[in-house]
Each structure stands twice: as structure tokens, then as C-alpha cells.
Amino acid sequence: MRARRRRIWPYLMALGPGLLAASAGNDAGGIATYASAGASYGYGMLWAMVIVTLFVGVVQEMSARLGAVTGKGFSDLVRENFSLRVTALILLTLFIANFGIIVSEFVGIAAAAELFGVSRYIAVPIAAALVWALITRGSYERVEKIFLVLTLGFFAYIGAAVLARPDWGDVLLQTVRPMPRLEVGYLQLLIALIGTTISPYMQLYVQSSVVEKGVTPEEYPYTRFDVFAGTLFAGIVASFIIIATAATLFPRGIAVETAADAATALEPVAGPYARLLFGMGLLGASLLAAGVLPLATTYVMSEALGFERGVSRSWSEASIFMGLFTGLVALGALIALIPGLPLFQVLVGVYVLNGLLLPIELFAILALVNNRELMGKYTNRAGYNALAWAIAIIVSVLSVGLIGITVLGWFGVSLG
To answer: Where in the cell is it found (predicted)?
Structure first.
């Protein structure tokens, strides 16, 4: 028994970057997207979550491996291996996508707080101050532990789904039987699912965290376990959000305009505890991502410009890093407090944008991870590489398809 514990303990100790990165994808925008999928199409998108979860695992693993083998973050590698124009394009798209999601996290905090009767004008500034203090006043180890505690809030969605009393036979059937639809709304939600589940910032965060944690190629098998375990956990949570809203809102034809709407709408059918659980999960998820996202973005921009960076560094050692993080948190919180901001459009729209921009990052990761001079014996193996390229191509085709269907709609041509 003691020998078995010694074998398992290193894997448990490695839990951190992969679990946090994947869990952060189930943030306010993700919850709104999953809830919208369940309310609009019932269990009809669960099959997509199985495939998307596989996609996430592959992409996250490549990013973590890049960090462990090279000891460098994504921006450093992009700057050193691509032309100036390509580097500028990649970093600009990442910054635009990431900043939109930063705003959405504080929107999620505001929505969760209002579920519990707390004004957003109180909750958002307090949350922003707490996130800022945690990152700028703590070490990486302390930040990681607090973030890991916040992931416990995701179990609330499993409880909410169970209280919703779904037809588990139908759930299983539609999970294993793909039934895609060729229509704008369905395709838009499908790309939003991909955009929120394989968000570019997740790859940036996991790679930077692996570097800051000092993971070596010899230690990487433990980190790979962390990545795949975190991906599986995040996929299960996302599926339970779809199940909860599909069981309660889809039969009644209730449209979800915010993640908070989903929580409120659960109450008449699933009881007040489901609503409270959903709200608790939304708050924990938004707080987690409100820390991870500005941090990932700050890593990217600091790496790209060659400045010192790291949570464990002091203000004097990494003043640009700390200042940029502070600015992103403050500006994101301020925008989220704008009266009349169309919350649902912000939340889901940001992830449609993420899905459209994602292929740019995926092809960059593939070019880097298959660079033998950079990765040595740690490049992708043939079968794994074929799967990774297939993921990048599928995401690109879906993005182009959405653009094409949208343009045809402008001319009055409908495909369903």
C-alpha cells in the first residue's frame, strides 16, 4: 500500500497548470454558451462535447510539452521562430480575444453576485481587488493552491444536473449519436463551444505555468497526467451544464440570455438548491478565470516585448509585468460595469470570435511542436501529429463555414 502511494503521489503533486487551464475554460462565457446549447438544442450537442474534449486534451498537451522541453513561453517561441509580420498577427489576435474574455469574466462575477442579491457595483470592484492582490502579492505556489481550491466550485454543476432529473437514457444516446444540423444558429453555437472549450488563453496559461513551475522533460509525464486529467474534468463539468439546462429549459422553450438566466430558470423545475448551486459555480468559475486570463495575457505580452515576468517576482523586478496585469484587471472590471451592456451578446459573441481566431494559434503551435531543432526527440509522433492536424483543419473549416453561412444570410439565402 505504501509503495502504491509513493507511485501515485508524484502525479497528484503535479496537478496544477493543466487542471487550472482546462477548468478556466468553463468560465462565465463558457457557462452561458453551454447553457444556451442545452436550452436551444436539448441534449443534441453532447456528442460535440466528447469530440471537443478530445481536441482540448491534444492541444493542451502540445502546449505543455513545448513549455517543458524549451523552457520558454508561447510568445518567446513565436518571436524567435516566425517573421515579424506573422508574430504581430498572432499576438494581436490573441490580445483581442483575451481582452474580450477578461471583460466577460467580470460580467460573470456581476451576474453571480446579483443572483445572491449583491450589487455588481460592489461585487466587481471587490473581486478585482482580490484578484489583483492575490497575483501581485503572492508566490506562484500560493496562487496555484488558491486557484485549485476555486475549481471545487465546479462540482456544483454536477449537483444542479442531478437535481434537474434528466432522462439519463436519452443523455447517453445523444452523447454517442452525432446529429449535427446545417443551420446558422447551430453552427454558431458549435463554434462557440469550440471557442470556449479550446480558448487560446488556456494554451498560453498552461505553457507559461509549466515554465514558471520549472517542469523538465524528465518530469513531464506527471504534467501530461495533469493536462489530461484536467481536460477530462472540464469536459465532464461542461457536459453537466448542458444536461442541467437541457432537462429543464429545453422542454419549456425558455431561451437563455445569460448564465444567470440559466440559474434562475432552473428553480421552478429543479428547486432553489439547483439555482444556488448554479450560481455558486458561476461565481467560482468567474473568479478563477478572472485571475487566469489577465495573467495569461500579461505573460504573452511581457514575453513578446522581452520584459521580466513571473508571479513570484517583485514589482521592482517585473514592473512592466505587474503594471500590465493591473491595467488589464482594472479596465476589464470597468467595462463590465457599463450600464446596459448586452451581457449575453458579450459572453457568447466573445467565444464565437475565439473560435474564429483559434486556427491561427493552432497552426503556430503545430509548427513549433514539430520543429525538430527546437523539440529534438519530443516532436509529435506520426499518429498523434495526424490527429493534431485534423483538429486544426476541422476548426478552420467550421470557422470558414460560419462565415460563409452568415454572408449567405445577408443575401437572404438560408440553409436551414
So the answer is: Membrane
Q: Is 6 domain-assigned?
A: yes
Predicted pLDDT at 410 = 59
Residue 190 lies in a domain: yes
Domain of 157, in residue numbers: 2-410
Name the domain count of the chain.
Answer: 1
| Each residue's pLDDT tens digit, 262-298 | 777 667 666 777 777 777 777 877 887 787 778 878 8
pTM: 0.78
Does any domain span residue 415? no
Distance CA 213, CA 314 (A): 17
Report if residue 416 sits inside a domain. Answer: no
**Ranges of the chain whose pLDDT falls below 70:** 1-26, 138-144, 147-151, 153, 195, 257-260, 265-266, 268-270, 309-312, 341-357, 401-416
pLDDT digits (tens, 9 = 90+) for 24-69: 666 777 777 888 889 889 999 999 999 989 988 999 899 999 999 9
Q: What is the CATH number of the domain that holds 139?
A: 1.20.1740.10
Residue 367's Cβ-side half-sphere holds a number of Cα atoms within 13 Å equal to 16
Residue type, 221: P
C-alpha distances (whole Å) from 234 to each of 25, 65, 67, 355, 384 are 8, 20, 22, 18, 22
Q: Determine the pLDDT at residue 324.
A: 86
